[in-house]
Design brief:
transmembrane, mainly alpha, transmembrane helix, Potassium transporter KefB
């Protein structure tokens, strides 16, 4: 066996793509909730929608990065791939939930 046969192939995908996908999903989720909210409470600031529209996609991007970082586990195949996918999706949903709570804090989350 030569040294090259013992080496694993490194992934060539970049981190930017899963982060953009995660941020896009998060943007559409929070936009759905904000459109359903209407004008909101008159006691809230005039541009109360800006905070969640910025914070939730950032959290979604972090969730996408978390999912990407589990790529080596998913590449192992078998039950490890299933475990990596499940942990990645649950981690993304958890990070998205935390970002939604932080984004809507003081307005819709009270």
């Amino acid at each position: 066996m030569t040294q090259n046969e013992n080496l694993r192939k490194q992934g060539t995908s970049t981190l930017i793509k899963p982060m953009l996908i995660g941020a896009g999903i998060a943007f559409f989720v929070i936009a759905y909730f904000l459109i359903g909210a209407g004008k909101g409470n008159p006691a809230w600031p005039a541009y109360w929608q800006v905070k969640p529209l910025l914070m939730v996609p950032v959290a979604g991007a972090m969730g996408g990065a978390f999912y990407h970082l589990l790529g080596n586990l998913r590449a192992m195949g078998g039950w490890k791939a299933v475990l990596g996918t499940v942990i990645g999706i649950l981690g993304y949903v958890f990070i998205l939930w935390i970002g939604t709570v932080l984004g809507l804090n003081g307005t819709m989350w009270d």
